[in-house]
């Protein structure tokens, strides 16, 4: 849902209105990530994102990266209370999302293991097929 929210905000809200083509920026993502981790109440920060690029504090080409970091950071900060102690965390996603979530969990001091989405799907289907056959 985080990716869907990111898309909706960029494409169908004032946060992304009138933006030029977006570019990759590790620095903008990291800045958004820290902001989201430090203050997971995203709603007020969405106004700040809009104001920042309108007033020139955030390069207009990097809004997508900052917003991605903000949303992922807030999600991970909120989830951190859900995981007891050092309970293992496994990520199942594509490679680009995996690296972003690994960075987010590392920022809050948590290690994660990663499994490619296709691999997890195939393993699950094989397990179901085996269970049905036996």
Short précis:
This protein has 134 residues and is mostly helical. It is built from 6 helices and 2 strands; from the N terminus they run H-H-H-H-E-H-E-H. Helix 2 runs parallel beside helix 4 (63-79), helix 3 runs antiparallel to helix 4 (63-79) and helix 4 packs across helix 5 (95-107).
3D architecture notes:
The protein is mainly α. It has one domain: 2-keto-3-deoxy-galactonokinase, C-terminal domain (Nucleotidyltransferase, domain 5, 2-Layer Sandwich), CATH 3.30.420.310. Helices cover 63% and strands 6% of the residues. It has 6 helices and 2 strands, in the order ααααβαβα. Strands 1-2 form a two-stranded parallel sheet. Helix 4 (63-79) crosses helix 5 (95-107). The longest helix has 17 residues, at 63-79. It is elongated. The mean pLDDT is 92. Keywords: Kinase, Transferase. Pfam families: DGOK.
Keywords, separated by commas or semicolons:
two-stranded parallel sheet, elongated, 63% helix, 134 residues, mainly alpha, 6% strand
């Amino acid at each position: 849902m985080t990716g869907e929210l990111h898309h909706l905000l960029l494409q169908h809200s004032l946060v992304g209105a009138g933006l030029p083509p977006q570019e990759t920026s590790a620095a903008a993502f990291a800045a958004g990530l820290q902001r989201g981790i430090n203050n997971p109440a995203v709603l007020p920060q969405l106004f700040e994102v809009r104001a920042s690029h309108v007033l020139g504090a955030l390069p207009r080409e990097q809004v997508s990266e900052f917003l991605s970091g903000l949303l992922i950071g807030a999600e991970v900060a909120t989830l951190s209370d859900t995981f007891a102690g050092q309970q293992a965390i496994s990520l199942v996603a594509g490679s680009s999302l995996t690296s972003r979530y690994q960075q987010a969990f590392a920022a809050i001091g948590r290690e994660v293991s990663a499994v490619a989405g296709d691999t997890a799907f195939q393993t699950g289907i094989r397990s179901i097929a085996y269970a049905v056959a036996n």
